[in-house]
């Protein structure tokens, strides 16, 4: 049994006790308060044996709360204690992300399905990034923003390593361009954000009639050198949400107003 009771007085009063059967006490509100307390004061627990001994369910809740209450992780020791094989969703937004962190993800989270690296303090290398993605074969959702190491070569490796990927958000990754289309075209992508990248009409034409073009429901190509020619090549049978704000589109004649289309984000050209 794990009784997690947050003390208002001092860290030493907050210590879990253990018996043979691990379970949380019945009050969900108390559980939430305790999780938030630990997440907020996590640095105090770094050298305490109890943190590593906590059940995976509690570790996962603490991990997910750190980004909310502490603006991410900024060392490797705490993730080393908390990461475990039951985690399927990880958010490292605003964290300091090193090769060590990426290695921990690959080693400890083989069932990872969703990874968010958006707006992190990127301190990893190309080698570390590539090594990680090759070991996350079950990944379905990846979110990265404004990372110079995310390029066509990475996208090619990602497509080959993660065949179940259906959500890819690479906003402001400037080194992603048209060459990425060849490897993404055969993927079952449902959501794709390549806004503020270097893709052109060539990218859209390359995916339009392939598997990717036929499964896309949510596409954002805003602030890319896209024209009506590229958009008109798309299959509009599945698209529900599309954004092309900041592009050189003079009218909406090229948009397929099919039965599924629900939302358009568009900048009217002068």
TrEMBL record:
<dbReference type="GO" id="GO:0019005">
    <property type="term" value="C:SCF ubiquitin ligase complex"/>
</dbReference>
<dbReference type="InterPro" id="IPR032675">
    <property type="entry name" value="LRR_dom_sf"/>
</dbReference>
<dbReference type="Pfam" id="PF25372">
    <property type="entry name" value="DUF7885"/>
</dbReference>
<dbReference type="InterPro" id="IPR057207">
    <property type="entry name" value="FBXL15_LRR"/>
</dbReference>
<dbReference type="InterPro" id="IPR006553">
    <property type="entry name" value="Leu-rich_rpt_Cys-con_subtyp"/>
</dbReference>
<protein>
    <recommendedName>
        <fullName>F-box/LRR-repeat protein 15-like leucin rich repeat domain-containing protein</fullName>
    </recommendedName>
</protein>
<feature type="domain" description="F-box/LRR-repeat protein 15-like leucin rich repeat">
    <location>
        <begin position="95"/>
        <end position="235"/>
    </location>
</feature>
<dbReference type="GO" id="GO:0031146">
    <property type="term" value="P:SCF-dependent proteasomal ubiquitin-dependent protein catabolic process"/>
</dbReference>
């Amino acid at each position: 049994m794990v009784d997690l009771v947050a003390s208002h007085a001092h860290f030493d009063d907050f210590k879990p006790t253990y018996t043979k059967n691990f379970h949380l006490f019945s009050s969900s509100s108390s559980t939430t308060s305790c999780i938030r307390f630990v997440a907020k004061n996590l640095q105090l627990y770094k050298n305490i044996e109890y943190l590593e001994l906590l059940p995976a369910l509690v570790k996962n809740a603490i991990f997910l709360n750190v980004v909310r209450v502490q603006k991410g992780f900024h060392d490797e020791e705490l993730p080393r204690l908390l990461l475990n094989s039951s985690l399927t969703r990880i958010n490292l937004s605003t964290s300091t992300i090193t090769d060590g962190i990426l290695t921990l993800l690959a080693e400890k989270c083989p069932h990872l399905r969703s990874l968010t690296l958006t707006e992190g303090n990127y301190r990893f290398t190309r080698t570390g990034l590539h090594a990680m993605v090759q070991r996350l074969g079950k990944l379905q959702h990846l979110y990265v923003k404004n990372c110079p190491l995310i390029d066509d070569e990475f996208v090619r490796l990602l497509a080959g390593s993660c065949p179940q990927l259906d959500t890819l958000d690479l906003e402001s990754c400037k080194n992603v361009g048209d060459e990425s289309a060849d490897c993404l075209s055969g993927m079952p992508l449902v959501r794709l954000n390549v806004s503020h990248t270097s893709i052109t009409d060539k990218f859209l034409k390359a995916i339009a009639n392939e598997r990717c073009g036929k499964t896309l429901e949510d596409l954002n190509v805003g602030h890319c050198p896209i024209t009506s020619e590229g958009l008109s090549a798309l299959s509009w049978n599945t698209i529900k949400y599309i954004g092309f704000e900041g592009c050189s589109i003079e009218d909406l004649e090229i948009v397929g107003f099919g039965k599924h289309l629900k939302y358009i984000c568009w900048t009217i050209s002068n």
